[in-house]
Amino acid sequence: MSTIHSKTDVILIGGGIMSATLGTLLKELAPEKEIKMFERLSTPAEESTNAWNNAGTGHSALCELNYTKENKDGSIDIEKAIKINEQFQISKQFWSHLVKKGQLDHPESFIKPVPHMSFVQGVKNVDFLKRRVKQLNKNVLFSNMEITDNKEKIAEWTPLIMEGRTSHVPMAITYDKTGTDVNFSALTKKLFDNLADKQVELNYKHQVEDLKQRKDGVWEVKVKDLTSNEVKIYESDFVFIGAGGASLPLLQKTGIKESKHVGGFPVSGLFLVCRDEAITKKHLAKVYGKASVGAPPMSVPHLDTRYIDGKRTLLFGPFAGFSPKFLKTGSNMDLIKSVKPNNIITMLSAGVKEINLTKYLISQLTLSNEERMEDLRTFVPNAKSEDWEVVVAGQRVQVIKDTESGKGTLQFGTEVITSEDGSLSALLGASPGASTAVDIMLDLLKRCYKDEFSNWEGKIKEIIPSFGQRLSENEALYRQVNEEIKQNLKID
Ligand SMILES: Cc1cc2nc3c(=O)[nH]c(=O)nc-3n(C[C@H](O)[C@H](O)[C@H](O)COP(=O)(O)OP(=O)(O)OC[C@H]3O[C@@H](n4cnc5c(N)ncnc54)[C@H](O)[C@@H]3O)c2cc1C
């Protein structure tokens, strides 16, 4: 027997960074809204948002080479790099505002300055990196980026990369001191604590099983209490599906027309981790390399300083893999169950098109630990197997949909799918992900609260001074905003 609960304004499904961000924004802009959150696990931030499940990079295109494409004429397109950087500036302004207002304390527990670097080898790649930096340096967002091909300087910036290196292959490395490492789980937990203080009802060990929209537009959300096994129906005017990899199956249950012809392909990940202080203290940077042929953009290898559970560690990876689960704690039936009559052609078309990805995943799946160590040694020549262990990272479910470039196109970005009446929104995909959460959620609010949004704009500008403007085109505003961010987030 299900009992019906009184209607609420907003239901957030999932206790990750996305729900935490949306809830916090809503409470800033419309404090009167009543919000309920349902999470199937016993604590927040245990899936992709958990610090061990993602790479913790505050994505700003200061090191990720896949955000700048080389055009056929040899010029370098930096538009995507600018967009990603601007999105992270929005996140930082929002967190800085919350710190200033006393809603987030100890910012050093979730964000730390860690230089971002790109590392390449070989004449062609060195030439590309030099042209890339020249182009980026013209923009204020990237004006701090330095580059060197001098091996002594490289050793000064990243000792571990040069120790024991005997190869004479040309190499180059960039250095940007404004990079960050973000502990998204620490941040998310703080945001939820803050939401609890604002009377948001946080329901852990509660799994959403079904969603139906009534004729009057209200959503009925069927929730199972995993402690008592009791099933209840909750009513809401607006629902956000922020269930990470599991957003796709929940979206399919809504039956909305926007949920058709969409599929998902899970890609799992592994990191190598080193906790030995004698080694970790020699490296303070996030160093991104170049992706192998066929590798999805998020599988670019990188060597990262991380601050997790109060300790400084080194992570290398991610190595990609395949698991049919949509969540790390999901079921082996997730992929099969997501194939429906309306998306089977979409899914099959993607299978045919993405041969390089399939080959890449098979090659990654068959890697032995010693082969993974060999990959690591292209970054850290002296790495010893006994100092590194394998940890399983989070699951990403890449969106497959029909686009202008044909049926079944694999998407590597983040997709927000919204019902026509704006009463439901689902977040699919995972990259660049958590770093861009605030911008993504502002965009979602604009789509779903069309009438209220124009009234909120003044308040948003107070919270995020660059809202509606491009910092990349306004150096004075960039400098002003960044002074404030540096002070409040203690990332000078
Ligand atoms: C290997 C890897 C590396 C990454 N690196 C970075 C990085 O360096 N920088 C970056 O910015 N981003 C990175 N990301 C992406 C980032 O982690 C994600 O974009 C972000 O954490 C997604 O947050 P979320 O809230 O959407 O999902 P999640 O954190 O996965 O949260 C979803 C929640 O929903 C819950 N849930 C699921 N189904 C139900 C249900 N039916 N009922 C109730 N609750 C449910 C889950 O238990 C989970 O807690 C990485 C991701 C991966 C996997």
UniProtKB/TrEMBL annotation:
Reported cofactor(s): FAD
Keyword Oxidoreductase among UniProt keywords: yes
Signal peptide limits: none
Pathway note: Carbohydrate metabolism; tricarboxylic acid cycle; oxaloacetate from (S)-malate (quinone route): step 1/1
Keyword Magnesium belongs to the record: no
This protein's UniProt keywords: FAD, Flavoprotein, Oxidoreductase, Tricarboxylic acid cycle
Domain of life: Bacteria
Gene3D superfamilies: D-Amino Acid Oxidase, subunit A, domain 2 (3.30.9.10), FAD/NAD(P)-binding domain (3.50.50.60)
EC id: 1.1.5.4
Pfam families in the cross-refs: Mqo (PF06039)
Record's catalysed reaction(s): (S)-malate + a quinone = a quinol + oxaloacetate
Annotated family: Belongs to the MQO family.
Name by which UniProt lists this protein: Probable malate:quinone oxidoreductase
Organism per entry: Staphylococcus gallinarum
